[in-house]
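Supplementary Data S3. Sequence and structure tokens for construct A.
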Amino acid sequence: MFGQDFVPDWIGNIGGTGIDQFKEFKKDANGGVFVVGEFQDTLFLDDGVSQYTLVSQGGFDGFVIRFSGDGKIVWANILSSTDNLMVNDIDLDANGNIYIVGDFKGTVFFDFAAVAAPLVVSSQNGYLASYDTLGNYNWAVKLGNVSSDGQAISVVCDRQSVPNKIHVAGHFLDSINCDPTYNSTPLISSGGNSVYKAEFDDIGNFISSFSYGQSGQAFLSDMEIYSSGDLLMSGQFIGSCTIDPQNTAALVTSISGSTDTYVMLIDPSDNLLWRNLYGGVGLDQITDVEFENAGDILIGGYFSDSVIFNHSSGFYEQTIGGTDAFLLKCNAGGGFEWFSSGGGIG
């Protein structure tokens, strides 16, 4: 039996002469869609009526595109760097303001009109930039240090708080300072990659930050927020690490020194509510996490060889071939609900 055929309401064409990477999209309250990613050389946009051409400065440049509910391009803006710039994620607050995160090196005018002063870094740093619904610049801050590398991977807005709070997470080497005023103590890694989470208000003021992953290596893949303000953070770790925002829980160790995955839920005060670890002898990766209406959680990714997803059973799931995709559901307390996987012999 075949599933129901899906007929798209509209199709937008995004492509160019170099490497183009579509990273994320978000819908607004009116059905419009915001799309972000990065490209090389020239990017062509076509909605069937209007055509746009974006040209990079030589390396990777970022793009932010707004489509209307019927698929027409409302505006398209480019973020250009003298080196490289990546756009990794986007979210919208309750007022329709746009927040994007990524990483960059060199000089970048986050103000599309090039009126506000650029941000300048000599090593790879993360960033958080805000725009209004028309694409006008609000503000931007960098996340990093002069001599250490950092990336901003995920951004979520707490639309229930007043004012709205903006959460940014990613990973870094050595140290990172998430406070644009540099009045706060930098977060320190113990040698490998560590994960950070920083909180800002909706006008760019720094509120707080923490890091985890000390002793081993930890990476962030995705973050989502529930209506209660609880945050779900997911990623990978290697070796023995702390997977805990307060760094007080016992170290966790990946199986056979391989890459294992984690999902943890923290409350609005950054206290650990629960965490789940999934791993096996091969490469395991979580790529996406989502909340359902009742607080249940869907986790997607891929794994190789064998891995345990249901710890109460102790049963290892096996791949069909090399690497298989998986979808896992947990209840609001992190308990196992069901698991499904798919793949081929290659």
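Construct B, processed identically:
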Amino acid sequence: MLPQALRAVSRSALREKNMRRIFGQGSIALSLLFGSAACRQSAQPPPSLKAVPVAAQPATTEELQQNPTVPRRVPTYRFEVVNTYPHDGAAFTQGLVYHQGQLYESTGLQGQSSLRRVELETGRVLRKVDIPQQYFGEGLVLFNNKFIQLTWVSGVAFVYDFNSFEQVGSFRYSGEGWGITDDGQQLIMSDGTADLRFLDPTNFQEKRRVTVKDNGRSINRLNELEYIKGEIWANVWYTDRIVRIQPATGNVIGWIDLAGLLATADNVGGRADVLNGIAYDAERDRIFITGKLWPKLFEVRVVEQRTELKPRVVR
């Protein structure tokens, strides 16, 4: 019964989200006509959301000479699986952080949202604090020894002490909260659009924003974020892709195609939801990827696109 219930909730959530986009925040009352929407979760996206962003085709030298405005080359990468770890298949992953050998995770769903410390090797939850039931947990970042956890539509972020998980503050923001990361000096936040906001970490005020574009085309539904080697990496909701972004301009500098990362055989009962969750171990240069309700978490290595698209597993 659980998969069917989740799919029903997903359809209600999608209707609510689309009405918000069309009619604004006041449209929440309209969603009551369709039942309670408890989560931003995917089942079958509507036709308008099915298109996956595709990198521009590379221009030839002759084309560039004749027309300098020909779209630039934006490479697409694939992946190799380096290691596979257990992951709580009931965790609706919204934010993922790696720090000093352990994972930290923000989970969503109204009434089920939490902040967690997780043992990487076993997937065991070592510490967990639930957030109040009226909030839907979203992105997570660790900055200056404090966690900052966004919420989806409530316009509030919670601040926690790193060691105790005790809430030590909060701040407000406009619009929706989806993903959050930092570049060591600023917080970087996504809100489900093509925009990234750069926030002052001392007062959480917006300093600037960029619109993420691939050859002039806006890339919407930017979700979970991670800052890796001077780039911003973002999950794109409803796709199996991560977009690599130049922070100063918002220009797309690459795509990572993760289709096939979670094998069909691992999606027991069809419960697994969309790809979401990027964490980076800067000390050992490791990248960790998972998804909402995924039973596994993967360490991956990004590789050049090959003609053969099947992922290689490194033993």
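Residues 1-70, 307-315 have pLDDT under 50 and may be disordered. The chain has two helices and 23 strands.
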